[in-house]
Write a structure and sequence with these properties.
Trna Endonuclease, Chain: A, domain 1; globular; alpha+beta
Length: 516
């Protein structure tokens, strides 16, 4: 018997449920063009895409079973783990629960078990690898949310208050009356954490997020309101995931990192990391990334001020995890603003080219890719033209700033394992090689469109993201600040970059996404 074809099965199931391609795309948050290519066999489905289709079409795991496991990759990890306390011999033990069915069996008799299952499913559906733990102590029951790590991220932990809404309005979820008391107790007892509340009246279980500081500001009043724009979905949870991972690592290394930076007073005098390897080992991967990034940024600014020509930049970020540094490292935003101002008077805009091979896209989960798209949007908002090339042959290219025909600055810190490398060159052969790379990338890029909306839409299509969904969600967030649900505590971080990116995407809602 012939093995069922994934694309054909998906099309048949979608049509059986009366869903148009556009309607289904909005349901799973993937671009219609991306789904069409999969249905027609022109693109291979990923495990993440298949899981979303199974969830949307309520097919169990029948579509996921049709996705072959890559031959050269390790078996996938369990998507999520929920841990529930069970009392054994008078002692509380956290028992791993890997499905909502097991959750219901374990928590039989608990009137909140449905809400707990809904919360666990929301977190794991939009943020694979999440672990929601209910912990019993002498003061009662508390939630602890363990956010997953990544290639460089080490994971993070946040206390959670799973609150109950008193009612909701068109724009917000409201906590009031007797339900304020447990919320006030929570926000007064933790320095950092998240309030998660179910949104009443939704056909599919959804939740809204609020940082404890934002809740604390409202708590003296009679109500606490959470904007529905802060719905826990692929966008907000990914922003929180990246921010929490960066924040926890930098806070833990604050003193050591400050001492390490003192060793790098003048990056212009340094070609390589000046930090001894034994001291560098004291820093987390994130702190090493911050130090390399900040040193490279200072070197580039000081070295390009006297460029005779407008430079073109080649940057090494390939994944949302790496690109999140543009959105949250405060010095990265200042670096983009400074380099944009230096060359604001030139006839051509500053440009940045990324190499993002398809293997990097397939190796990152859906919501992580949204961060890469937002990083590009942030650059476009500052007048920097972004270009993305999928050619894997260029994936290991040095990062550089090139003044065509005259000189170049080399700056590497991404995927450098705690080191960085900066240099200047006027070598004719090197400058020619860099120019050839930029020319090749431009000829084989995702889009040569003249307007930012079309370039970002082309990137979204390549990443398998619905551009209309991104615009709608960014428009919802543009009226607020992401700091109210993902607040950094480290002085080295801010949400200014991601806020600017969301506002810019929202401003493009009526811009054409095709043509020149």
């Amino acid at each position: 018997m012939e093995q069922p074809n994934f694309g054909g099965e998906l099309r048949g199931l979608r049509q059986q449920r009366g869903l148009s391609l556009k309607e289904f795309a909005q349901l799973v948050h993937y671009d219609p063009g991306y789904i069409s290519k999969i249905e027609n066999g022109r693109k291979a489905p990923t495990a993440m895409f298949a899981a979303r289709c199974d969830a949307a079409l309520r097919t169990g795991s029948s579509l996921s079973a049709l996705v072959p496991a890559p031959l050269d990759r390790k078996p996938p990890k369990v998507a999520h783990e929920v841990r529930m306390p069970v009392v054994i011999d008078g002692r509380p033990v956290l028992l791993p629960i890997k499905s909502s069915g097991q959750l219901n069996l374990t928590a039989d008799g608990d009137e909140n078990r449905g809400a707990e299952a809904d919360l666990a499913q929301t977190l794991s559906r939009n943020l694979p690898g999440s672990s929601a733990a209910m912990v019993l102590n002498s003061e009662g029951m508390a939630w602890q949310w363990e956010l997953p790590g990544g290639h460089a991220f080490g994971g993070a932990t946040l206390p959670v208050h799973r609150g109950e809404a008193s009612w909701s309005t068109y724009h917000a979820v409201v906590i009031a009356d007797q339900r304020l008391r447990p919320l006030r107790e929570f926000i007064s007892s933790v320095p950092r954490g998240i309030v998660i509340v179910s949104i009443p009246g939704e056909s599919i279980s959804t939740h809204a997020l609020l940082d404890v500081v934002a809740a604390r500001k409202q708590a003296p009043g009679r109500t606490v309101m959470i904007p529905k724009s802060f719905e826990a979905d692929d966008l907000t949870l990914e922003i929180l995931w990246a921010l929490a991972n960066l924040d926890e690592a930098l806070l833990n290394d604050d003193g050591t990192l400050a001492q390490a930076r003192q060793r790098v007073r003048d990056p212009a005098e340094l070609k390589y990391s000046a930090i001894p390897s034994n001291e560098l080992a004291e820093l987390s991967t994130i702190s090493q990334m911050w130090l390399g990034s900040e040193s490279c940024a200072r070197f580039i600014i000081s070295s390009t001020r006297n460029f005779s020509h407008r430079p073109v930049f080649w940057t090494r970020e390939q994944r949302g995890e790496e690109a999140s540094t543009w959105l949250f490292f405060q010095h990265k935003l200042e670096y983009l603003q400074t380099t944009s101002r230096i060359f604001a008077g030139t006839s051509e805009p500053t440009s940045r080219t990324f190499c993002v091979p398809e293997s990097a896209v397939l190796d990152s989960h859906f919501s992580e890719r949204v961060l890469l798209l937002l990083a590009a949007a942030l650059m476009e908002s500052l007048g920097i033209r972004t270009q993305f090339c999928p050619d894997p042959a260029l994936s290991q290219m040095d990062g550089f700033a090139l003044a065509t025909g005259s000189e170049a600055v080399i700056a590497n810190w991404v995927r450098m394992e705690g080191r960085w490398h900066v240099d200047r060159t006027r070598s004719t052969s090197v400058i020619q090689a860099f120019g050839d790379v930029i020319g090749h990338a431009g000829a084989h890029g995702l889009s040569d469109a003249a307007n930012p909306a079309a370039r970002l839409a082309a990137l979204a299509d390549y990443l398998g993201i619905s551009w209309s969904w991104v615009m709608n969600r960014c428009s919802a967030l543009a009226a607020y600040t992401c700091r109210d649900f993902a607040r950094p505590r480290s002085r080295l971080l801010s949400t200014d970059g991601v806020d600017a990116a969301c506002r810019y995407v929202a401003s493009l809602r009526h811009e054409p996404t095709s043509g020149g």
